[in-house]
Structures are given as structure tokens and as C-alpha cells.
Amino acid sequence: MEKLRIEGGHPLRGEVAVAGAKNAALPIMCAALLSGEPLALANVPQLHDVATALKLLDRLGVKSRRAGDRVELDAGAVASVEAPYELVRTMRASILVLGPLLARFGEARVSLPGGCAIGQRPVDQHIKGLQAMGAQISIEHGYVVAKAARLKGARIVTDMVTVTGTENLMMAATLADGETVIENAAREPEVLDLAAALVAMGARIDGAGTDRIVVHGVERLHGGEHRVMADRIEAGTFLCAVAATGGEVTLTQALPATMDATLDKLREAGAGVEVGGDSIRLSMKGRPRAVDLRTAPYPGFATDMQAQFMALDCIAEGAGVVTETIFENRFMHVLELQRLGADIAIEGNTAVVRGVPGLSGAAVMATDLRASAGLVIAGLVAEGETTIDRIYHLDRGYEQMEARLAALGARIERIRGSA
Ligand code: EPU
Predict the structure, then answer these.
(1) Cβ contacts of residue 277 below 8 Å, gap of 6+?
(2) What is the pTM of this model?
């Protein structure tokens, strides 16, 4: 198993280009199932989760061609409507094939994802919405089995804001008979990016990016082209790293307009932040100030940035109160940060982080994707050597993280588990 070895204490300087967004690329790749004609995508990040999505689509009979950041998907000869457990359990986003398969082929069998490190993460809202559109759904042998001759437009109010739930229902509705209204829809920029890709394929969608999305179903979608938006979470992770280590870094190919909550918190922590159309320059001198955070659906503070900011609070001046409202078990990085000398107390869904003047390097273990990112940031500031085990979690969502950080001056390398 591979690990990262980091020697902390080196400021970051330079320029780094932000990759395409994982959480936009995954649903958009699944959207290729809605049409018999090819979907050409650009700015697709080279991530483990993208490889898993390609494997899943291949299983269904979708032909793919990949060259660099470009991926072409052709679902003209789909041979199966079943997403098997062994792929779904490694990537929960696989549930995103449910809506498209059902809408285009009238049936789908998608494994239930099962447990997940950061919380229960049920898919009941995806199912409820599809049932409202007339689907017959049962759970058989661990699979969601869905059938519908043709989905019908419906008014759906989700019980909570769900990102992939909104995406699944929006995709399904594009081919439904009549108008579908999704109330309490997720407003995440990735939902808007998916809507843009669907519109490029001929879908009729209004209100994406608001909490009320209206989809006018059409008979069929055609092929299309789309460039995947920049990853706001990857960008935020780099910025947190610079805020923690000190230095000055410019992000290019970024989408600062999608990052208000993150950029506000970085300014509150004492960073100088300058924003251009697609660039962000962050400079940090001295020790950051601790910030309070409360995760919330977009445009609130993203749960996917919580671990990285907690790492920043660990070495900040003062104390920060971090409240996680989206997932019930997303504090697993706390025990690992404590191994590095952090002072964190957890009470329910709230963590009180009292900043310490410095962390000290240690062996730690990554538990999920964003927790790994938090540990990398902590390792970059900790005195001495930090090794992070199980970095396959990091590779799911960050493209060559260690090489890009090293180019900014970090002392970081990938090593084999036995080293
Ligand atoms: N929920 C339900 N029932 C449902 C759907 C969701 O109870 O049917 C609950 C979840 O358990 C959670 C809350 O609603 O408590 C919100 O979950 P949501 O459905 O929004 O999460 P998701 O769609 O499964 C996406 C991202 C996550 C990100 C969350 C929240 C993708 C592929 N994944 O997950 O990204 O944390 O939204 O913003 O878009 C990551 O990239 O590291 C990651 C985990």
C-alpha cells in the first residue's frame, strides 16, 4: 500500500492549475447514458473515481475513449442495466446511473451502496423521487430494482438537500413525459454544471442553481460537448495548505465565483486573497487566526472543506468551533490530527479546536478523501516527518497531489508501504 512522506515546515510558493471537478465529472459521465449519441467531455480530472466511473460505464456497454483530460462516451449500444455491488461499494456516486438507465431503458438494477466511512448516506430520496415519477421500485438482494415504461413528470419535494439526489432526479426528468419540478433542490455549482451538459444534449431545464428546478421532458437527447467546471474543493484545499504553511500561491483555471464561503473563511483566518476571473492569489504571513465553521449546503460552507480548515485551526491563534451538519461521522481525522499534537475536543457534531503553536510529525492514517487532504495540510506544517498511510483515499479525488505540492516547494513524496 502506498503512503505519503512529508517533511513539514516549508512555505508554498508558485502557481498551480486547478483540475476539473470530480463531483461534476462523475454525474456528467453518467449523463452519457441518456443518449445514443456520443458525449464529448473536456477538463475531466485524472482520478481514481473517474477510472471507476469509466469501468462502471464500460460494464453497462458504454464505449469510451480517453486522451488526457478529454473523454468521449458513446452509449449507443448499452448491453446491461445493472450496476454491480463490487463497483458501487467502492464509489457511492455509482448510484448516479440509476436515473439515466431507468429514464432511457425503462429499467435499472443498481446495487445499494451500503455503509460509508463518513456516515450512513441512504439513497431514499433518489428512490422517493423516482417513485413520484411513476417508477416501480423494490429492493431485491441488495439491489434497487426500478422499472417504468416511461417516467412521468411530477412535483418532488426532497426531505433534505441532496446533491446526487437532485442530480439523479434531474437526469431522469429530462426524458420523462411532461414537466418535473424538484423543490428543495441542491444549489451546488456541480448541479448547475450537470444541467449545462444536459442542455448541451438537448434537455430543457430551468432553475438549475436555485432550489427549484423545472425540467420539461423531451423524447430523446442527442450527443453534445461539455467542458467540466473547475474543482472548487481541490482549489480550496490548495489554498488552505498555503494558509497553513505560509507563502504565496496563485491558482489558475479556478472558478472563484463558486468559492465565496471558502474565500471568506480564508480572509477571516488572516490570508490575503485576490481574485481574478479564473485566478486566485493567496498570500499568508505569520500564524493564521482560528475560524469557526458550520457546514451547510451550498452556498454555505462545504462539508468537503471541513477537514482542511480543521487542520488550519489546529495551528492557528485562538480556538475555532467546527460544526458538521451534513454527515454524522465526518470527524475521523480528529484522532489522527491529535496524533500530530492537535488539541481538539469533540461534543456530538461539534469540535472545539484550540490552536497550538506547532504540530509534530507522526505516522497517521487516512480514513476518507477529505480527511486525507486535512492530514496532508497538517503534515505540511508539522515539524519533522509525517507519513500518511492509505492514501488511495486521496487518489480518489486529487490528481497527483504530491507532485503538484512538491512543485510549490513542499517536501513530499510517495513511498511504497514497506518503506
Ligand atoms: N441523504 C439522505 N437520503 C438521500 C440522500 C441524502 O438521507 O436519499 C442525506 C445524506 O446522508 C447526508 C445529506 O443527505 O446526510 C446530504 O447528502 P448528499 O446526498 O447531498 O451527498 P451526496 O450527494 O451523496 C455529494 C458529494 C459529496 C459531498 C456531499 C455534500 C458527489 C459525488 N459527492 O454527496 O462529496 O460531501 O454531496 O456536499 O457529488 C467528496 O467529494 O469527498 C464527497 C463526499
Answers:
(1) none
(2) 0.98
